[in-house]
Amino acid sequence: MATRIALVLAGQEPVGSRITVEGWIRTRRDSKAGLSFLALHDGSGHEALQVVAPKELANYESEVLKITTGCAVRATGELVASQGKGQTVELRADTVEVVGWVDDPDTYPMQPKRHTMEYLREVAHLRPRTNVIGAVTRVRHALAQAVHRFFHERGFFWIHTPIITASDAEGAGQMFRVSTLDAANPPRTPAGGVDWDKDFFGREAHLTVSGQLNVETYCLAMSKVYTFGPTFRAENSNTRRHLAEFWMIEPEIAFADLAADAQLAEDFLKSIFTALLDERKDDMAFFEKFVDAGCRKRLAAMIETKFTRMDYTEAVAILEKSGEKFEFPVKWGMDLQSEHERYLTEKVVNGPIVVVNYPKDIKAFYMRLNDDERTVAAMDILAPGIGEIIGGSQREERLDVLDRRIAEMHLDAKGYWWYRDLRRYGTVPHAGFGLGFERAIQYATGIENIRDVIPYPRAPRQAEF
RNA sequence: UCCGGAGUAGCUCAGUGGUAGAGCAGGCGGCUGUUAACCGCCGGGUCGGGGGUUCGAAACCCUCCUCCGGAGCCA
Prior knowledge:
Layout: H1 5-9, E1 18-31, E2 35-41, E3 49-54, E4 72-81, E5 89-100, H2 117-122, H3 131-153, E6 157-158, E7 164-165, E8 177-178, E9 205-207, H4 212-222, E10 224-232, E11 245-254, H5 258-279, H6 281-290, H7 295-304, E12 308-311, H8 312-321, H9 338-349, E13 353-359, E14 375-383, E15 387-394, H10 399-408, H11 417-424, E16 430-436, H12 437-445
Helix pairs in contact: 3-5, 3-6, 3-12, 5-7
This protein binds one RNA strand through strand 1, strand 2, helix 2, strand 11 and strand 15.
């Protein structure tokens, strides 16, 4: 059985032991001294293992000298101290087996050189063989594990909220329709409209835009819960921060107010980034060197600093007094624009900010109305370089106020009957937030385009793979 | 969706009206316990698609497509 290369390089196998490794070739270099050097990667870590193939190998002329970038190889031999510089140990092979050849080396898309991220997106099936996507993949995994660990250790339960939802009223943007009807010739009602009663669910159905409403019900039973799964938005967003399919983390806590929610969010971010810095030193060093020189410092600073709390009203006042020329002038009652968020995080505080108590008219119906009757107990956590990374709120637990808000926003109360029931049967103050998982990865790594931190990005006109 | 930018060799790019180039990659040879090695030679192009201007278009004009950045929407 093959040994993982990361473990070999970490010193788990003593020099002198006989091991087998399996992976894909990055480069081959030949020496006329009668040996070839193979840089072998198996994805287990950032570094490659140098395999030394001597000309005495039976298949040296016939195969080893024909190995090109991308070939799959199994090599067995003795782990020895390296005679060359650049690595401490290497594998002196006594067998090198080519498990899979590269069909046409001339057009193999992955060359041993730096490719642009745009190009790599066009070969999404092969890009995990690169340093940068390999590193992203390991970081993504480490963060996902850290997310589950954080919640598990604090007594949260992971709730698998549905992907398909029949309540078309989640109110968080355009939704993808889920239907088995013949799109070209759907059944019609007498009035001529599409007869959704004939569809699979007997009603209109969509992909979820948020697990929040569903997870709230479990919150009011299990006390501390969270979702972590895919989310879908059919918005025609063409930016480096948006995807049509992305993963979202949404914790929900009972008997809790906005302050507790903000504290949870702060602890959460610090926890997962601490784990990342600890577990993926190799990859973070790579990002620091080749992608974003400030990424490790930024995370370290965030972990150490207490997040600044700022009232929305105060933030607007600061922006108004800043003397800064904004494309969109600041005014109480409007949402903060990207340029405003950037000014606050980068110029005013130079770190993460929790902005709380937004005007009710720019926030969702379920957010708890404050006593001033003009703001709600909402929060956004803004981070330098990425803007809003977390959005959350205390939820409206008073049925009469909730109904008033539903009516104000011209929503149909009937569609929320089960959500309203929570306010009738043992309602409690509760709160939660949502974190876009990919944005957290962007923040941590400095990868500029969100399409490069998810294996197969889904965006307008992009679903090739 | 709006604004701006870009599509030339497998990849990264140069080429602003007169016979399509470089580096890397690939093939062949040389050299070396090598490090995305180095040196020499060779092969490789509907210049994104369509239409137009011109004696002549990769270049100028129109149009469509694709990608990137910014904005909006948001996570």
